[in-house]
Amino acid sequence: MSQHHEVAGHVTTRSLRQMKVDGEKIASLTAYDASFARVLDEAGIDFILVGDSLGMVVQGHTTTIPVTMDEMVYHTRLVSRGIKRALLMADMPFMSYASGEACLRNAARLMKEGGAEMVKLEWGELEIDMVARLTECGIPVCAHLGLTPQAVHKFGGYRVQGREEAAARKMKEDALALEQAGADVLLLECVPTALAAEITAAAAVPVIGIGAGPQVDGQILVLYDILDIAPGKRTRFSKNYMVGADSIHVAIGNYVREVKTVSFPAAEHAFT
Ligand code: KIV
Question: In angstroms, what CA-CA distances link 188 with 106, 176, 272?
Answer without folding.
Answer: 23, 13, 14
